[in-house]
């Protein structure tokens, strides 16, 4: 890990401008609303990684319920966005290390991580993530008409 460890914390409405910069689009007020309104995505918590007083990355974790009585609790990691200038500096590795030490991922909890088709981030290999599920998307169609 090349960069100093960032502070990882829950995103707040004050991070909305930085989130807008990281995503490169969107409305600042909507970002502020989404990170504070738990009804928008129940079970999801949005986080930021902050280094030297600047938000460098954002990600979301969603707790997934398990029916299986002896199954470990499960989280899904998604919405991972890094500022372009910090890619390759170890930020992703710091996030995964934080997941392991702060949330017990890999010991007390199982993690499912989404990646774009055809991509396998090197961090997945470094932390021992293996391919286990295929994700299928049912997109929202314009006009709201179901098939």
| Shape field | globular
| Mean of pLDDT | 89
**What's the architecture in CATH terms?**
3-Layer(aba) Sandwich
Helix content: 10-25%
Question: What about the largest sheet?
Answer: 5 strands, mixed
Spans of at least 5 consecutive residues with low confidence:
none
CATH fold node name: Aminopeptidase
CATH class: Alpha Beta
Mind telling me the CATH superfamily name?
A: Gcn5-related N-acetyltransferase (GNAT)
**Percentage beta strand:** 25-35%
**DSSP summary: helix tally:** 4
| Number of separate domains | 1
Estimated structural class: alpha+beta
| Rounded Rg | 16 Å
Ends distance? 47 Å
The side-by-side strand order for the widest beta sheet comes to: 1-2-3-4-5
* Tally of strands: 5
Listing every helix as H and every strand as E from the N terminus to the C terminus, the arrangement reads EHHEEEHEH
Distinctive features:
single chain, 147 residues, alpha+beta, Aminopeptidase, 5-stranded mixed sheet, 4 helices
Structural write-up:
- With 147 residues, the chain is of the alpha+beta class.
- It has a single domain, classed as Aminopeptidase, CATH 3.40.630.
- 24% of the residues lie in helices and 26% in strands.
- The protein has 4 helices and 5 strands; from the N terminus they run E-H-H-E-E-E-H-E-H.
- It has helices at 16-23, 28-36, 91-103, 122-126; strands at residues 7-10, 44-51, 54-64, 73-82, 109-113.
- The protein has a 5-stranded mixed β-sheet, sandwiched between helices.
- Helix 1 packs across helix 2.
- The protein is globular, with a radius of gyration of 16 Å.
- The model has no long low-confidence stretch (mean pLDDT 89).
């Amino acid at each position: 890990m090349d960069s100093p460890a960032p502070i990882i914390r829950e995103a707040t409405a004050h991070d909305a401008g930085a989130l807008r910069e990281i995503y490169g689009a969107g409305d600042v007020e909507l970002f502020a609303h989404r990170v504070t309104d738990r009804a928008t995505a129940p079970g999801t918590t949005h986080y930021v990684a902050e280094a030297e007083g600047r938000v460098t990355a954002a990600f979301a974790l969603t707790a997934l319920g398990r029916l299986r009585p002896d199954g470990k609790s499960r989280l899904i990691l998604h919405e991972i966005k890094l500022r372009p200038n910090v890619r390759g500096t170890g930020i992703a590795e710091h996030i995964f290390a934080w997941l392991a030490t702060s949330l017990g991922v890999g010991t007390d909890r199982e993690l499912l991580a989404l990646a774009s088709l055809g991509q396998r981030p090197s961090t997945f290999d470094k932390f021992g993530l293996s391919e286990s599920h295929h994700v299928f998307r049912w997109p929202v169609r314009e006009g709201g008409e179901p098939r």
